[in-house]
Chaperone protein DnaJ
Amino acid sequence: MAKRDYYEVLGVARGASEQEIKKAFRRKARELHPDSNSDNPDAEAQFKEANEAYDVLKDAEKKAAYDRFGHAAFEGGMGGGGGPRGGGFHQQGDFASAFSDVFDDLFGDFMGGQRAGGGRQRASRGSDLRYNMRVTLEEAFTGSQKTIDVPTSVACASCSGSGAEGGAEPVSCPTCSGMGKVRAQQGFFTVERTCPTCNGLGQIIKNPCQSCHGQGRVEKERSLSVNIPAGVETGTRIRLAGEGDAGTRGGPSGDLYIFIEVAEHSIFKRDSQNLFCQVPVSVASAALGGEIEVPTIDGGRSRVKVPAGSQTGKQMRLRGKGMPALRGGGIGDMFIELVVETPVNLTSRQKELLREFDELSAENNPRTHNFFSKVKTFWDEMKG
Ligand SMILES: [Zn+2]
Ligand SMILES: [Zn+2]
């Protein structure tokens, strides 16, 4: 295919001024913007062509060469490095991003580097939602079914989410040609504003849907049944695909994430799959030994043998009485930890008995005895 004349490509006369060339290219660029050319397969090629033409004609030196030799000026390794912008448009998928790079070059100087056409949105995916759910340890043990009310926006039923009455397709905004922004001259400056007609969307709906005022979605509280699997922990996330906010104008819905927080339990402490339970025992019980009854997370009870002479901190393991693993696997254990309690608020009779007991039990507290014999050695050595 023969190369078209650069002036013809941009639609300007030979001898057009630098300003006229720039203006013509901007007009072309807007026309060929990928957002408003989804149904024009030639837009990319046309834009490349226009960009190439502009790249030459904006440059006084290249322009002079072109005016003299035509396309031959840039063939056969002459004329400054091949295509414009290093030929950045090779990948089909990069057209839009390459385009916006060029757009920044074109219009960026008017906006202090702010990206032209930014903030436009069309059909887009809805937001993900987060829902914090507190469950009891018992619920985490058994798993449970919960119903939650999620305030969310859902696709409007009247317009099937399109925002247009009767489901008509939105059209490119005539005020801003789909750019979402308009520019106005103010003195020496060109200022850019969000398009007042389409509020920056770049599209308008001829007959907005009455139910959703053209938004394509409506606020609604939905009841959702959530299955909380056994074994959840604080920090467990449950993803409900497609249960988040509805997309705008027919875009897909986001996801809903349930963030689990397992409440503290009054009796049990949890460490992943294991449970810990501190059980106080009297001095006499710890000394004599015997059986105690302890609660289990399933609501039952287990009898545990306390050996005679148990100290505070003594642990006993109840196998398989802990928490289930979230995704199958075994069940953890429960650990009983004894806390020997010193009796308080003694009557004079009790004090009397204890004193009598203490006098008889000099050899019954091996740790105490051991400690004070070490202390004695320490003092003796300090004295030298
Ligand atoms: Zn507009
Ligand atoms: Zn609607």
Observations:
- The CA atoms of residues 142 and 230 lie 5 Å apart.
- The chain is about 25% helix and 25% strand.
- The chain has a mean pLDDT of 81.
